[in-house]
Design a protein that fits this description.
Structural class: mainly alpha
Order of helices and strands: HHHH
Number of helices: 4
Largest sheet: none
Distance between the termini: 28 Å
Length: about 70
Amino acid sequence: MRLRHILDRSETDEAVRTAQEALRDIAARDGQLPRVWSTVIKWATEKKHLAGRRAFLSLLDPRVDPYFCK
């Protein structure tokens, strides 16, 4: 739930990128992908949360944002 609030921020800041990484790390744990995927689909379809779209894309294509310059 807390990750959803961070991922729902309007700007893609460091907190959002960290939340995306945390979501991928949780999904990579043994047996957790189905639970994470179910939650992400719920976020994406239940309401029009930016978090749902961000979470979906970060699981689908976890590459680093090509437009982000460090």
